[in-house]
Design a protein that fits this description.
By secondary structure, this protein is of the alpha+beta class.
Length: 619
């Protein structure tokens, strides 16, 4: 009997969705020899649900991914079919870019980037097991095992010192449409069983979540005249700081509404809805509820808004945003006949729900490396998140840290005051999840500083230091920074009576146009530079106050908590605090303070313990 085929790589990435693509690209950019393994190479970068990138807080994340050298921003700029800046009437911290994508073109663009990346091999494989080696006690990692590779269907083996799992909704996945159930993590595709079994064998806790997707309709059968037109922006804003402008023509979306007749039909059939019949027990995303949930939870509402979003330039398929459902097919058919403009609608793909395994993220370090297995990283929905953007951000961080670890370098860990990505990961590993996690601006306590427009200023210098972005990109940023500094200095040096233009601009009623009227030379300043100079001046006082709190958190973060600290031996620590600190094992006092249920008194006890015992092994 011949020995199984073996392949050698530095980093393996399992799953080629949004997390997997960014993980593989990041690791390869840092010089690692990477293999990206996918069940189906025709679905690399697939948009499984809505054909859009960005949105409230999510748009900020995409800008940060781009600032760190990721692919998502440039890809959507290239293939977007409608661009909108959300929350324009609110302050700049709330402004969030969003774009509809040509779904197939986006997928092809991500696949092209993966295929073109030096050092990255794209492979169609089904991973069935994880390979690990036992770690000698006292090696300093705190882990029980070290990853060694994966075994794929056909008994071939891929060996590597780092593995990133980005398995999406495919771990022991089960799809539901009414009473009908079928194995699979996405319509038309299968599921994976071996990885879940391997994780349980290694000691990981797994739980179940559920998500859903709306039906898709044939645009030929829709009456757009009876719907509200939703056009894109007249001045479409790119996601990537390397994109000078959006040149392609935009395609409109449309809005219609449900009504009491629709709601009555749904109520009559709740006993056939898997979430209400008991067929599904798992928790779904609270902020993206199914139409069944909306009708039950918001019974007082007479109607719910539906967005008809085109899936691309070369198709008539429309995504019905707002009708995520797992109701039976016949109910879905009848439901649309009651909606204005959709009376003749033909359903091309029926909505369904998916149940899948995820790993509670308290089992991760802030680098997204698992605590149980050294060299094994998790990113995306396996960590209990929802959304392309959250997944891509985690993938970029996990892939970067997998490559950095192999080079013996410190991991990339973004603080909460540095990036929405830092907020996302800190929330996951510190607080865990009891429902699929979605990012909101309200989760970021320093959101005034974490605007979408300054992501490159915040993160590209760090990305350049790590090696994630090119020298050319860094030089472009430096030129931009110099231009902003020059404008701010001019505003501070120029007076309008007894006040400088910088202080004048801080007044809420003062606009950039008012300043240009007083200093006409500023009329030639590029719009992006003018906007950021305006924000720097207008919000300087607020940002300064934020910096005081940030500095306090930094001082706490410098108080490191040893990996081996035995919390059961910390005198006067409450039983609940001992249990939670032992489970999360925070890296610092600052992280400990963000654990749900940990009080200032608990932190004070830890401080006293650290001061009295030092940092020796007896802790």
């Amino acid at each position: 009997m011949s020995a199984p085929s073996q392949y050698e790589f530095d980093v393996l990435v399992v799953g080629a969705g949004h997390a997997g693509a960014e993980a593989a690209l990041a690791a390869a950019r840092l010089g690692a020899k990477v293999a990206l393994l996918s069940i189906n190479l025709d679905t690399v970068g697939q948009m499984s649900c809505n054909p859009a990138i960005g949105g409230v807080a999510k748009g900020q994340i995409v800008r940060e991914i781009d600032a760190l050298g990721g692919a998502m921003g440039q890809a959507i700029d290239a293939v977007g079919i409608q661009f909108r800046m959300l929350n324009r009437k609110k302050g700049p911290a709330m402004h969030s870019p969003r774009a509809q994508a040509d779904k197939k073109a986006y997928q092809a663009e991500i696949k092209r980037r993966v295929e073109s990346q030096e050092g990255l091999s794209l492979k169609q494989e089904v991973v069935e097991d994880l390979l690990v080696e036992e770690i000698p006690l006292g090696d300093g990692t705190g882990a029980r095992f070290r990853v060694a590779g994966v075994r794929v269907r056909g008994d071939a083996v891929y060996r590597a010192r780092a593995v990133v799992l980005t398995t999406g909704t495919f771990l022991q996945a089960l799809m539901h449409t009414g009473e009908t159930k079928s194995a699979g993590g996405r319509a038309g595709e299968g599921t994976t069983q071996g990885i879940s079994a391997a994780l349980v064998r290694l000691g990981f806790e797994l739980r179940r979540f559920k998500t859903g997707t709306p039906p898709r309709l044939n645009g030929r059968t829709l009456d757009f005249e009876r719907m509200e037109l939703q056009p894109g922006d007249d001045d479409p804003q790119p996601f990537s700081f390397l994109t000078d402008r959006i040149a392609q023509a935009q395609i409109p979306c449309f809005i219609t509404y449900t009504n009491q007749q629709v709601h009555g039909l749904i109520r009559q059939n709740l006993h056939r809805a898997p979430m209400y019949s008991g067929q599904i027990q798992s928790r779904g995303p609270r902020y993206c509820p199914s139409i069944e949930d909306k009708v039950v939870r918001f019974a007082h509402k007479e109607r719910h808004q539906l967005f008809l979003e085109p899936e691309g330039r070369g198709t008539l398929e429309y995504y019905v945003n707002g009708v995520s459902t797992s109701l039976p097919r016949d109910v879905q058919d009848e439901m649309f006949r009651m909606v204005p403009g959709l009376e003749r609608a033909q359903i091309m793909r029926y909505g369904y729900a998916v149940e899948y395994d995820f790993s509670p993220p308290e089992q991760l370090r802030p680098s997204l490396e698992t605590k149980l297995v050294a060299g094994l990283y998790f990113a995306g929905q396996i960590n209990g998140t929802t959304g392309y953007e959250e997944a891509a951000a985690q993938g970029l961080v996990a892939g970067t840290n997998a490559a950095l670890a192999l080079q013996g370098r410190e991991p990339l860990v973004l603080d909460r005051d540095a990036a929405y990505i830092g907020v996302l990961i800190d929330d996951l590993v510190t607080r865990g999840v009891d429902e699929p996690y979605r990012m909101f601006t309200s989760r970021a306590e320093h959101r005034l500083s974490l605007r979408h427009d300054n992501a490159d200023r915040r993160l590209t210098p760090l990305a350049h230091q790590v090696g994630l972005v090119s020298a050319e990109r860094f030089a472009r940023l430096q030129a931009k920074l110099a231009a902003i500094d020059e404008i701010v200095q001019a505003l501070e040096a120029t007076r309008d009576g007894q006040i400088t233009l910088a202080k004048l601009l801080r007044r809420p009623e003062t606009t950039w146009q008012d300043i240009v009227a007083r200093l006409p030379a500023l009329a030639e300043v590029p719009a992006e530079v003018a906007w950021q100079a305006t924000c720097d001046c207008k919000y300087a006082g607020y940002v300064a106050r934020q910096e005081v709190e940030i500095e306090r958190q930094r001082r706490l973060a410098e108080k490191r908590l040893p990996e081996w600290l035995d919390y059961s031996r910390v005198t006067h620590l409450r039983a609940e605090a001992r249990e939670k600190l032992t489970r999360v094992r925070p890296a610092s006092l600052a992280q400990a303070g963000r654990i749900s249920g940990i009080t200032p008194a608990d932190l004070a006890v830890l401080m006293v313990h650290l001061q009295s015992h030092g940092s020796g092994a007896h802790l």
